[in-house]
Records
---
Amino acid sequence: MRYVQEFRDAELARAVSSEIAALAEPGRHYKLMEICGGHTHTIYRHGIKDLLPEDVELVHGPGCPVCVLPMGRVDEGIAIAERSEVVFTCFGDMMRVPGSKGNLLEVKARGADIRMVYSPLDALRIARENPDREVVFYAIGFETTAPSTALTLQRARKEGIDNFSVFCNHVTIVPPVRALLDSPDLRLDAFIGPGHVSTVIGCRPYEFMPADYGKPCVVAGFEPLDLLQSIMMLMRQLKEGRCEVENQYGRAVLWEGNTKALESLAEVFELRPYFEWRGLGFIAQSALKLSPDYAGFDAELRFASPKVRVADPKACQCGEVLKGVLKPPECRVFGTACTPERPLGALMVSSEGACAAYYNFGRKSYEKVEIGSKTGSGE
Amino acid sequence: MYQNTCSIDHTCVTCSDAGTPVRVLSVEGDDALCEDTLGNRARVAVELVSPVREGETLLEHGGVAIGRIGEADPKLSADNRMPIAPTEGGYE
C-alpha cells in the first residue's frame, strides 16, 4: 500500500528507535509536544511511546479542534439545530460534544433534523436538494479543514444557493502555540508540527518558535515512521545545539504551503479579534469568521444565535492536560466520572483528544501511574 | 476515503487532521474521480490543487484535495532522510 505500508516498516522503526536512544544524553529528560491530535492518536494506536527511551516524554498539545471548542459554542450550535426550519449538518465527532444541556445526538433524538456529513460539500448538496429548508453546516477544524469550507462557500456563491449557511468555528494553529509558549508553567524542549495543517500553511509560520522562543520544530507526517523520524530529527537538533524548523513530511508539505488554498482562505475568511479556547482562555486572532463578502452565508448573523459563555465542570482538568501540565490519567476524573462513553471533558470526546486516546490505547501505561499522582498535583 | 467516513464511535477523519492519499482516475471539471489505497472510489474537489492529471496522487481531506503527494520539499536535508531508504514513494 503505497505511502502507507513503507511507513509502518518494523525494521526501520527499530533502527530509528535505536538512533533516538543513542541521541538521548544520559540524565537529561526531554519533553516534546506533538501539537496535533492526529499525532496523539498515532502515538497511542501504534505504541510509539513504547519505542522511546524513558527520558523522552511526549506531551499532547491543543491540536484537536473538537476538544478546544468551548461549551458555549456547542450550545450556540444546538440552538440553531433546534430550529424547525433548519437541517443541521456536522462532522461525526461533534455529535457527542457535551454542551451545558446535552449534545447534538440527544437533540437529534428529540426530533431535530441533524445529519452527519463527511465533507461540507455534502452539506451543500443537501441544500441543493432541499431548497425549502435552511441547511447549516457546523464548520470546525484547523487550517487543514478550513479550505474545504472556503471552497464550499465559493461554490455556493457561484451556484447562487442561498439556503446554505455556515456556523464557523475554524481555528488557527499558531496563536495557541504561542500562548502555550508564553505560559509560565510550561516546560518543553521542542515541538512536533502538524503535518496536514502545514500542507496548507507551509512551514514558514513556525519560524517564530526557534526565533522567539528557542524551540526547535519538525513538521511531521502521520504514519508511525513519520513520527519516529521527526522525534529523531528533534533529538539531533537538541544534541547538536541547532534550533530551527525542519520538514520531515516533505512528500506532502511544501515550505510555502498550498498557495491556492491560502488564497481561498483569504477570500472567504477573516480573523476574529479573539476566540475562546477550552482550557486556554481567550486568544487573540486565533479563529476565523466569514469575511464581509461572504457574510450572507454566516449562520451566526442569519439566525442571531445567542452568545453564551459556559464554564467547564469544576472537576474537569482539560486545561492542565492541554497545556501539558498534567498527563490524562493524572486528571482527578479520568476513567471514573469521565470516560469515552460519558465524557465530562472535551478531551475525552473525540478519539483524537488526549484523554480518549490515552483511555483507548494507553491503558497499559495508565496502569503504571501511581494512585498518588491522580490528585492532580502534576509533576 | 469515504469508507473511513466520520463516525460517532471511530476516528473523525476531518477533525483529526487526517489526509488520505488518493490516485486520480479521471478529471471532470472541478472534480476528479479518485481511488484510495483500499480501492474505494469517490469524487474529490480539486480546485485547490489544479491543474490535475490522471495518475497523480493527491492528499484528500473532507472531500477536497489539499495537496499533492510526492513533491519532495527541497529543504529536506539528506541527513534527515530515513536511516534505511524506504521503498518507492518515500522521501524523494
---
Amino acid sequence: MRVANKTIYDAVTYNLRNRTQEMNKANEIVSTGKRINNLSDDPVGLTQALNLKSAISNIDQMQRNISLGNSWLASSESALTNVEDIISDTKVLCIQMANATIGSAERLSAAGTVQNMVDEIISLGNTNVAGRYIFSGSKTDTTPFSSDGTYNGNDNAFTIKVGKDTTVEVGSVGDAIFENIFSTMADLKTALETNDVGGIEDAMSDLDGHFDDISAKISDVGSKMNRMEVKEKILEDLNFANTDRLSQIEDADYTEAIIRLEATELAYQAALSSSAKIMTQTLMDYME
Amino acid sequence: MSSLGMVLNIATSALAAQQYCLDVTAHNIANVNTEGYSRQIPTLQGKQAVQYQGVILGLGVKTEQVTRSVDQFIENRLMQEKSNLSSSQETEKYMQVLEGIFSENSETSISSMLSDYWNLWNDVSNNPSGSSERIALYEHSVLISEQFKSLGPNLSQIQTDITNAVTVGVDRINEITSEIAQINVEIVGMEGNNNVANDLRDKRNVLVSELNEYLDIKTFEQDNHSLTIIAVRGCTLVQDDSNYELEMGGSNGDRVRWQDSGGNYVDITNYITNGKLGGWLELRDEIILKYELDLDAMAKEFIWSVNQQHSQGVGLEGFSTVTGTYAVTSTTQGIGIPGSSGAGLDYYRALNRSSFTGAKDISTGYAGNETLVIYENGTTVSITLNGPADIDAVITAINTDLGMAGVPVTASKTADGLYLVLTHDNASSGSTFGVATTSGNDELGLDQSFSIWTYDSDPANPPVENVINEINSSTTLAEIEIKINGIANINASITNGKLQITGTGGYTFGFSNDTSNVLAALGINTFFSGSTAGDISVNSTIVADKNHIAAAQIDATTGEFASGDNNNALAMADLQYRAMDISQWTCDRINGNTEGRVTTTIEDYYHSMVGSIGIVSSSISRETEFNEMMVNELNTLRNSVSAVSLDEEMTNLIKYQHAYQAAAKLITVSDEMLNTLISAR
C-alpha cells in the first residue's frame, strides 16, 4: 500500500493517543486501588457493589440494635436474678417465722425486713438502661413502680429490630412479673404483723410459685440472649462474606494492576521511540 | 523535410510541459498538510505525429489535464464513519458528565444516604424518646432532600448545555450550506467548458464532510456538477446556488426546524440520528430524559411510602394544629380521581387499591339503591345497583357492566359469602383502581376511614376517638372538612387548597388507623413534602418540632400513646425491605416515551438505575472506540490514494528537473546546429 506522509503522522497520533489512554487507565487503577472508578468501568459489578454496601450498612445497624438489646436483656437478667434471690431469702424467713417457737415480737420485727425486701424489689423493678426503664412496657420514660408498688407502665413490651421482619422483645411488662409478688409480700407482711402462722405458710407456698415464674422469666431472657448471640454470629459471618465479596468486586488486584501499568508504560515508550524514528525519515536527507 | 525549427518547437513544448509538471508538484508539496486535499497528477501526451517523406515523426509533448487522485467510494465511507464518530464522541463526553453526577465514590451518594436514612429510623426505634436520635434523623433527611434536589437541576443543566450546543451547531450548518451553494456556482461555471475544478471539488468535499459530522445528509451530483444536499424528512439544505437554513424554534426554542417553500415549519428534531446533532439530541431527549423521569419516579415513590407509613403514627405529643402540604385545585371534586375531573392531588392514587373487600354483610342484598363507580386507568364506569336480591346479583351486575366497558376488574365474594370483593385482574403487576359509592350510605361497605383522637389538657379525661368514615375516590376535601368540623374540640378549614386542623379549648389531637391513605395524600402528619426529586423537602411540621416525628402509634382501643413506643419507627425501618411499584421510563424520540413499572425496593431501583447509566456509558465508549478505529482505517485507505507523499514529490521534482534540463539542452544543440549551418557558406 502507498504510504503518504499523512499516513505516518495520523498513525503516530492515533497510536500514541491509544497508548496514553491505556496508561492513564492503568495508572488510575493503581493510584486509587479500585477496579471501578467510573460507573462505566464495570456497571454490573458496580450494581453488585452498591447492593453489598447497602447490605453491609444494614448489617452494621442490626449489630448495633442487637448490642443495645443485649444490654437490656443483661440488665433484665441481673435484676430478675436479684429478685429471685430476694424471693428465696423471703422463703427462708418464712420457714423461720412459721416455727412455733417464734414469738409475736420477732414476727413483728420480721415484717420490717419484708418491707425492706419489697422496697428492694421495687427498686429492681425500676432498673433502667441509659435512662430508659426496662420493666415499664413501652412507657420507657416513666418509672414503672411507685413506692407503694403501683404499676405506671403499659402492656406493650419494648421491642428492637434484629433483622428483616424480625423483632425481639427486650423490655418487659413489669406488671405481669411483679404484681403477684407484691401482693404475696403484702399478705406475708400482714400475717407477720398479726402473728398469723397460717398466713405465713400460705405466703410460703405462693412464693414457691413466684420463684418458679421468675426462674421461667430468667430462662426466657436467657434464651433470648442466646438467640441474639446466634443472630450476631450469623451477622458477623455475613458481614465478613459481604465485605470480602465487595473487596473482590471493587478493589484492584495490585499485582495485576502494577504489571499492567508497567506493560502499558513499556508499550508507550516503544511507540514513542519508533514514532520518533519513522517521522524523521525523508528523501531530502539524502539529496544535496 | 525535418527542419531545425521543428526541433526547436519540440524542445519548447517539452520545456513548457516539464514546467507545467513542476507547477503541479509544487502545488502538491504546498498542500501536503491541507485537510481533504487530493494529490494532483499531471497528464502528458505525445503530440499527434505527422508523416514526412515516408517517415512518421512525433511533434513533441502536450499537456492534457490535471487529475485528482481520489476514490469517491472511500470518501463516502469515510464521511459516514466520521459522522458516526462525531455522534458517539459527543455522547461519550456528556455521558462522562452524567457519570460524575451519579458518582458513587462519595459519601453524599443517594445510595449510601438511603441506607443511612433507614439506619437512623432504627436508631429512633431503639430510643424513641431520645431527642438526639430525632435530630440526627431530621438533619439527615434534610441532606437527602437536598441531594435529590441537586440531581434534578444538574440533569436539566446538561440538557440546557446540549440545547446551546445544538444552536451553535445549527448556525454552523447554515454557514456550511451557504458556502457549498457558492462553491456549486463556481464549479458549474468552471466545469462548464470541460475543465475539472480539482481544488474546488476538494473544498466542497471538506465542507460536505463537516456537514456530515453535524447531521445525517444525502448528496447527489447533478448533471451540471452542482451538489444537492438533502437532510432527514426530505428537507433540502442545498440545491444549485441556493441553501435553505435550519433554525431553532418551538415553544422552548429547543427544536430543530426547517422551513419549506410554503413557509411551513417541519420539525426534524426527532429524526436526526447521526452526527453531533444526532448524538446531542439522543442524549437530551432519550438518555438524560429517561434518568430525569426515573429519578422523579423514585423520589415520588420514596416520598409516598415514607409518608404513608408516617401518617399512621404519632409523635411524642399530639398536634395543636397541623396543615397539609398538598393542595387541591378543587375542593368540590373527588380526591381520588385523576385529571381535571378530580381534586388535582399529586397522590390521587392514594385511595386506589389492587383489591377492595366490603365491610358490610350483603349476602341478602340491601335495602336502598346504590351506584358504584370504578376508576381504572383513565376509564370511569358507573354501575347502578337498585335493590338487588342478594350478593350474587350484585356480583353479576358489576361483572356484566365492567365486562362491557373492558375494565380489568372482577367482582367476587368472600369465602363465607357475606362480603363483596373487587379485584384488579392484573393485581400481580401492581395495577390498582379506585371505587366510589354515591348513595351516601355506603351500602357495599367499600369505603375507607381514619380516626382522629382528641386529648384534653387534663389527663384525667380519657382520649376520645372520632372516626371519619365513608371516604372513597369521589370524596371531596370540602366533605372531609365538614366531617372533621363535626368533631368536638376540633376545627377544620381549607386555605389555598390545603386542609388545616386545629384543636380548640386546649385540646390536642392525633391520628390512627388510616385505611384510606387520605392523610398521606393531603400531606397531614407526613414526613416529607413534595412529590418529585426537584421539590422533596422535610415537612415543615417536623422542621418546626422534631417531636412530631412519628415513632409511636396510637393504641387503637385506648387512644393512648407512649414515649417509648417504637411501633411506627419499626414499620418505617421495614420500608427498606419493601418491594414497591415504581415507574420506569423508556424514552424514544420517534415512538414516544412509555411508562413501565417495576416492583423493587427503593435502593435496588436506584442501584440498577446507576448501573444502567454505567452500561449506557460503557457501550457508548466502546462504540466511540470502534468508530475511531474505523475512521483511522478508512483514513489510511484514503491517504494511500489521495494524500501527498513528499518522497514521491521529491522524486518527481528531480524527474521533471532532469527532463527540463534535457529540453534546454535540445535548444542549445539546435542553436549550435543553426550556427553551423549559417557559417557554412
